Amino acid sequence: MLRVGRHFRLDKNKIIVGRNEVENKLLTAGKMRGDYFFELPDIVGPTTILQGPKTKSAIETAAKLTAYYSDAEALEVKVNFGREALNKSIVVAVPEKAEVDKLRVG
Questions:
Q1: CA angle, corner 45, sides to 3 and 17, nearest 5?
Q2: Number of domains in the chain
Q3: Whole-prediction pTM value?
Q4: Residue span of the structural domain in which 26 resides
Q5: So what's the pLDDT on residue 3?
Q6: How far is CA 103 from CA 56, 79, 96, in A?
Q7: Sheet arrangement for strand 88-93
Q8: pLDDT above 70 for 34
Q9: What is the torsional sign of CA 80, 30, 99, 11?
């Protein structure tokens, strides 16, 4: 998974955001049992994987990163997520570049 996607750290969490359709499929296929995955329901965008503790902050951050790298034009975006299915959702504000850059690894 180290060569796939954009990598971010938030405390004890690792967040991986796909860059294209091929990476999105690789992330979904390589997702471990306890991982959450995130996607936008009606907008072209990445698949995001959240590894580590599923805190409110970690879920919100993973959703924001998913929104940031999507084709969303709105300031707030609905992001679906879950372990086995995208059966939960959260509405998040699309973050600024500076907020994203602070979390990015390498």
A1: 30
A2: 1
A3: 0.95
A4: 6-95
A5: 79
A6: 16, 19, 12
A7: 6-10, 13-17, 48-51, 36-39, 76-82, 88-93
A8: yes
A9: positive
Q: Give CA separation, 32 vs 29, 70, 82, in Å.
A: 9, 23, 12
* Residue 1, pLDDT score: 58
Is 71 contained in some domain? yes
Percent of the chain's residues with pLDDT above 90 = 94
Give the span between the Cα atoms of 23 and 28, in whole angstroms: 9
Whether residue 1 is contained in a domain is answered as no
**Cβ contact 39:47 at 8 Å:** yes
Beta-carbon neighbour count of residue 13 at 10 Å?
Answer: 19
Mean pLDDT of the chain: 95
Q: What is the rounded CA–CA span in Å between residue 76 and residue 19?
A: 21
Sequence letter at residue 52: G
pLDDT band per the 50, 70, 90 thresholds, residue 36 = very high
In-domain check, residue 17: yes
70 within domain boundaries: yes
pLDDT band at 2 (very low <50, low <70, confident <90, very high): low
